[in-house]
Write the structure tokens for this entry.
Amino acid sequence: MKTKLVRQIGEIRKCKNILFVTSHPDDECMFFGPSIITLTKKPGANVYLLCLSRGDYRKTGRVRKEELYCSCKILGIPESNVQIVNSSLLPDNPMVNWNEEVVAQIILNFIEVYSIDTVITFDKYGVSNHRNHTSVFYAVAYLCLEKQLPKDCTPYALESVSKLRKYVSYFDLPLSFLLSSIKYVVPMEMREVIRSAMRAHKSQYVWFRKAYMLFSRYVFINTLKEIDVLELELELEKENR
């Protein structure tokens, strides 16, 4: 039976060179799988992944680097389109905020080299409130506020949801359709591909991640929101009051 990808009205339509920016190996399949699989199937699209650390929190960075290449291959991103940053300035640590200007410069360099027109990353909550995740959002926000992004490059954020919604699997579909304008949904066959990608991360595939891959909405649906400069400026004003 031919696999059919379900792509909803409101998807990102004008995109050719697409960059996913993540913090650690396994973020790509734990959070961004539906978007990645759908966009790699888009005619004429080139999908890239920029991972900002090797995931060396438990000193397994070398292993996790190779696992990431395997996972991306399963999801449809060739190794040549994957870049992994290994910098002491960007430690894999849930309690560390990365310097937004350092991260912003790394992202901007990639955008300029590969003529990226679409950037997809975490929102300010980072799905799990991991500080490395949220740091990536604030780096992209910095590029927006400083007007450093090329005019033809549009940034999007993966929407975080409550813990209840996060773990109700496909029961979150009605709310996702109601509340979000950009959404990527994959059928059961593609969910199995995403789970296979996660299994490529053998060093990380422990019981609670196995459970996550069974129950998380992020395995079958991604909802995205364009990162809007005006909204960022208004939020900044509120914080400074």
Notes: Strands lie at 6-7, 17-22, 46-51, 82-84, 118-122, 154-158, 182-185, 221-226. DSSP finds ten helices and eight strands in the chain.
